[in-house]
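Fold this complex.
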Amino acid sequence: MKISWRTIVLWSVPILVIGFFVWQGAFATNTTAAIGNNTASARMTYGRFMEYLEAGRIKSVDFYEGGRTAIVQAVDSDLDNRVQRLRVDLPGNSSELIPQLRENNIDIEVHPVRSESAIWGVLGNLIFPVLLIGALFFLFRRSNNIPGGPGQAMSFGKSRARFQMEAKTGVKFEDVAGIDEAKEELEEVVTFLKQPEKFTAVGASIPKGVLLVGPPGTGKTLLAKAIAGEAGVPFFSISGSEFVEMFVGVGASRVRDLFKKAKENAPCLIFIDEIDAVGRQRGAGIGGGNDEREQTLNQLLTEMDGFEGNNGIIIIAATNRPDVLDTALLRPGRFDRQVTVDTPDIKGRIKVLEVHARNKKLSPEISLEAIARRTPGFSGADLANLLNEAAILTARRRKEAITMLEIDDAIDRVIAGMEGTPLVDSKSKRLIAYHEIGHAIVGTLIKEHDPVQKVTLIPRGQAQGLTWFTPDEEQGLISKSQLMARIAGILGGRAAEEEIFGYDEVTTGAGGDLQQVTSLVRQMVTRFGMSDLGPLSLESQTGEVFLGGGFMNRSEYSEEVAARIDSQVRSIIEHGHSVARQIIRDNREVIDRLVDLLIEKETIDGEEFRRIVSEYTHVPEKEQFVPQL
Ligand code: ADP
Ligand code: ZN
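Structure:
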């Protein structure tokens, strides 16, 4: 937002008003303070005062303001001789009055001029201009801090349009890594922007809109910026959520302004982030539509239809939810090209890490491949964040270069949140230790389970203790026996609590585990056909009803089937639970030893864990899926 003069003038009005009152207040106290608490509302002329004096009806005189004003107590004969307090303005020097007052035995009191009241008076007069200047200064400062700052980025405050323009993004394709397919598809767009005549010459019409689909942090914005950067055209951006605020009509006018500015700057690229915020299916809202959103969407459609593809504007929109978009947006001539931007695989992660390692000091022993292997499911933004966290830790530890230690800590932090302080040794620490060792021992002794990476009692985020398993590289398909192993592993924590402390002592600590296991098992039954119900898909994967679409997909089955699903879920969970309990029961001796060690050391790594367990029982070899690089 840029602050215009209009805004300043608008803002000044309340400030002026407030200023005026402050000023008035200060000024008013100026006089009342001088009269002290003896405020007398009624006045009396000097002449009348003299008459009263002569008539002996004045009882006392208090002089104020160096003798220029007096408050007198006068007996009013008209009002049953009531004593009245009246204010009299005295002419210049009142010293001649004093002897006369003394003659008549009148009480005299002189109140000094209060010097601080004079100061207040001056301050009062100053406060208002100072306030005004301060407020204007504040507004100007704020206006300079708004997006982009002093660089090339520029924003338009005019007519409420809130979009950013970057004349040069400075981002190149080489800065975007690990999403090669998306990059390839979009390289063509660069040519559209750079040499449209190549296409128009053969009668090809240039596409107007490209929809980037993918989870947050996968580099969609970055990719759009890279297209603009490679083509050397300006980059206009706005977020869909910014359209949908404030009043009806504002969003539509922003769209108009955006396209107007874009046309003036063609060839250029318009990037609309979170387009699902405006582009949701119309009329799908339950409880009334959203007029503002619909108007904005209609305006967007109108603008997109209103220009020829050949005038050098390409619109790129990003979303994570293409399924909720209004079909009108996806028609030919609008966002008719969809490009998927997914989280990178291991090779992709290595490349993203390479990009972000460019400006960091890594110690030579660091292998980006090892980091990539440990971070399946991480998006580009997560990886960038990971290296940055590691760099911060390195600086904090006053090291020269990032080592594997910082990387490990940063990974843990990115996955599970900040470390808390460990519990002091207590019954609940002991219970948490048994719970975690329970997960770890079940995971270790079932062949199909991922191997334990470490067990720790250092709290992180919500968790009081954690057991880490070396994650599977994304092998895509997971077998039923692997899922059954996972179920037993997840239930291992609660099973250990039950075995060791008894059923009455189990805690809420397993709540998350139970939730996880229940949803996993439900999916096995209803989606993967892994139960006695047979190979049926009973639920599709669509999201909530109110997001539009997916309205009819829930519960396509009868109540009878629902009951059978529940009983299948229950029996699978019970099976996993009994497997876990059996393992805990059979290995009580080593579990006790591991718990003591864990409480002492707070962390046991996977190697050591397996070594200790193997002193007591056979530890099955695990085959780790090692991806071919
Ligand atoms: P999205 O728009 O998909 O939510 P962004 O493009 O805003 O994600 O990504 C945020 C940041 O994460 C980028 O500025 C960049 O530093 C990093 N990043 C994300 N994806 C990649 C990638 N594929 N290659 C390099 N850096 C990436
Ligand atoms: Zn647990």
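Residues 176-179, 216-222, 318, 352, 355, 380-381, 384 surround adenosine-5'-diphosphate (ligand 1) (CB under 6 Å).
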